[in-house]
Amino acid sequence: MTTTALARPFTLPAGVAFAGTGLAFASLYLAAGAPTPLLVLFEREWGFAPWVLTVAFAAYALGLLAALLVAGSLSDHVGRRPVLVGALSVEVVAMLMFVFAPGIGWVIAARVVQGVATGAASSAFTAALVELAPPHRKRLGTVVAGAAPAGGLGLGALLTGTAVQFTGSANLIVFGTLAVIMVLGTLTAALSGETVTRRAGALGSLRPQVTVPRAARREFGAAIPVHLASWMFAGLFMGLAPTIVRDIFHLDSGLLNGATAFLPPAAAAVAGYALGRQHPRRTILLGGTAVLLGATVVLTGIVAVALPLVWIGGIVGGAGFGATFSGALRAVGPLAETHQRAGLFAAVFIVAYLSFGVPAIVAGQLVAPLGLLTTVLLYGAAILAAAAAGLFTQWRLTRPA
Asked: If we measure between CA atoms, which residue out of 287, 338, 299, 309 comes closest to residue 150?
């Protein structure tokens, strides 16, 4: 099994392939963050119940989880390139579904298709970035893989919020542009060199399963509460922020919604990259502490009805989100062989997106009986508890065996 690109005609240079793969990966998450400011606009135009917002948000995560369970390790058998080309082609279809959606049902369906495409591609993209990274800078692959999802989520929300604020056809502009970007990403994947050789077992790998190599299980298990806290924090901003801004702060602005959702994942991308040279354990501990502090500041800002405090807390907690995810990827990545890598990263993303989507769905169902403020406070308390548990599990790993 080789970890260097296999020769083929018309293959992109290694550096171009690595950069293009990173940008294509980020574009998937840019598309995932794009609907956040639009959902409130759709609610006003189409008149559906507020709880449907969280269903539309979380439908993406559920589609992603289903694809990860089925196809998460497929690229370990058939190669990275076929999986990425197929997934990005499906993503183009999802973008067109958004463009022509006549109602919320189509939007939810588009979110599911989008989630399936992203789930099929995420572990393959992460493994490909590790394998395409320059030989003398292999750590850069996991750093980029950790920063790209967060950066894409934030930028997608900000750009869409800007389009909502200043244009009358944000849906067409945003998703038409993203469709073109996905076509370019598909071409990049098709022209990049393959990094693994085909091996038997492709059909068997489609059985729903989570694969964590024995050598990585202790590290993987210790990171679960860390992922829970940080991805719940991201879900608070990506899934509930527009409703919080409108109903608690009584502000109705597409740009404000996009900017509020943008801050945590943008801080996450910066922190994940900036801390790439730090030891993974130190990075995770710093990140977990930042999530704990950031969530506390956000809850204080919501109770005090002080939006700047929410922004500050979002930046602090978002930096923690990026640090923990990047550190956790760097901690488990070296513990897997090449043919196990996509399966392991699929397991990481399954934990991440269960934490991202399921709590948001539960919160959406609690808004009606409990009220938005009480629901958000309970959601925040769960983040604090998970962050504290994550810090404890990471601290235990620092002690001598």
From this structure: 287
SS3 325: helix
The pLDDT of residue 74 is 81
Look-up of token digits 């934030």: 154
**DSSP-derived 3-state class of residue 194:** strand
Residue 175 tokens read as 């998703």
Q: Which residues pair with 6 in a beta bridge?
A: 194
Element of type H or E holding 12: none
Length of the chain as a residue count: 401
Question: Alpha helix (H) ranges present in 72-138?
Answer: 75-78, 80-99, 104-132
d(CA 25, CA 3): 20
- Decide if 215 contacts 339 (C-beta within 8 A): no
pLDDT at position 173 is: 94
Do 102 and 108 form a contact (C-beta atoms < 8 A)? no
How far apart are the C-alpha atoms of 111 and 97, rounded to whole Å? 9
| Tokens describing residue 226 | 């860390």
Residue 123 and residue 211 in contact, taking contact as beta carbons nearer than 8 Å: no
Q: What is the DSSP letter of 7?
A: P
Q: What is the Rg, in whole angstroms, of the alpha carbon atoms belonging to the chain?
A: 20
Beta bridge partners of 194: 6
Q: What is the pLDDT of residue 293?
A: 97
3-class DSSP assignment, residue 6 = strand
What is the pTM (predicted TM-score) of this model? Answer: 0.77
How far apart are alpha carbons 154 and 29 in whole angstroms? 9
